[in-house]
Write a structure and sequence with these properties.
This protein is of the alpha+beta class. It has two domains: 85 residues, no CATH class; 164 residues, L,D-transpeptidase catalytic domain-like (Beta Barrel), CATH 2.40.440.10. The protein contains six helices and 14 strands. The strands form four sheets. The protein has a five-stranded mixed sheet with strand order 6-5-4-13-7. The chain has a five-stranded mixed sheet with strand order 11-10-9-8-12. Strands 1-14 form a two-stranded antiparallel ribbon.
Length: 289
């Protein structure tokens, strides 16, 4: 009887260890209550239809760095995901030709509506990607995390109207509840009829729409400060966009406080939330769905 009881207790402890949520915010992980979102091979991005990739299940002790070496950045961008959200048990998209994937972007190299603008920001919700244009030519582009279902990012034409290098959310807190959610390198592009402001800013990128309406970009410096991870900060997209769009080369000295701006870059937002499928969008070896 005691032996049976010991086995039951051991089994219960094993199950608890496997299914528990991360105990601290610095642990990589996604919501264990929504496992369907942990399979990024099911998220359809139209631009990937012409690229050969296959689902890659992440096993214990595997990270982007151990799997792909210096090309971990390529795979992170390909999946629109940061290192904090890559964990054992999830599935990502693995491009078969890593060298070719290094130059991947779903944004057009030339964008006619941006030709008469010195600086123009195009955000494609369907692709979860942002492009920065100078007189219609793509200067650089980067993954983004837009609003999730129910709190979608507004679409249309807007204009940057404020900057705030050290912005924080007035509504939402970090996972631990210790502080308001950081929105470093914040660029405001819209205020709606309910006085809700929408910003482009630093945030976590889980590989899918995730925000309450703002547009989030990679920023591992913010993640290091808030979560203690990663040790070496490489992905700093929000800082790059901030400096290009509203930095001191364009405006006066930035004191880090919120500042209203005039004649900021145009922001165009197009598309709808990506489609989620019950199976990988692209199966290995060119097989059909």
């Amino acid at each position: 009887m005691l032996r049976l009881l010991a086995r039951v207790i051991a089994l219960a402890l094993f199950i608890a260890i496997i299914v528990r949520a991360p105990s601290v915010v610095s642990e990589p992980g996604a919501s264990p209550t929504d496992p369907s979102r942990e399979d990024l091979s099911r998220v359809e991005y139209p631009s990937l239809a012409a690229i050969d990739w296959e689902p890659r299940f992440i096993r214990p002790h595997e990270t982007l760095e151990t799997l792909y070496g210096d090309d971990w950045v390529t795979v992170a961008r390909f999946n629109r995901i940061d290192r904090r959200h890559v964990y054992p048990g999830m599935t990502i998209k693995e491009p078969k030709d890593l060298a070719a994937a290094r130059n991947y972007t779903p944004m057009p190299a030339l964008y006619e509506p941006a030709r008469r603008h010195e600086k123009y920001i195009l955000i494609n919700i369907t692709e979860q990607w942002l492009g920065a244009y100078e007189n219609g030519r793509l200067k650089f582009s980067m993954p983004a995390a837009t609003g999730k279902k129910g709190t979608e990012t507004p679409t249309g034409l807007f204009r940057v109207s404020a900057r705030h290098r050290n912005h924080t959310s007035s509504l939402y807190q970090t996972d631990s509840g210790d502080e308001q959610y950081p929105m470093d390198n914040a660029i405001r592009f819209h205020i709606d009829e309910n006085a809700v402001a929408y910003w482009i800013h630093a945030r976590d990128l889980p590989g899918r729409p995730a925000s309450h309406g703002c547009v989030g970009l990679f920023d591992e410096a913010m993640q290091k400060r808030v979560y203690g991870f990663p040790d070496e900060q490489v992905l700093l997209d929000s800082e790059k966009l901030y400096d290009w769009a509203v930095g001191e080369d364009e405006y006066e000295d930035d004191a880090g406080e919120q500042e209203e701006l005039e004649e900021g870059p145009v922001v165009e937002i197009v598309g709808t939330i990506p489609v989620y499928h019950p199976f990988p969008v692209n199966k290995p070896n060119g097989a059909g769905r």
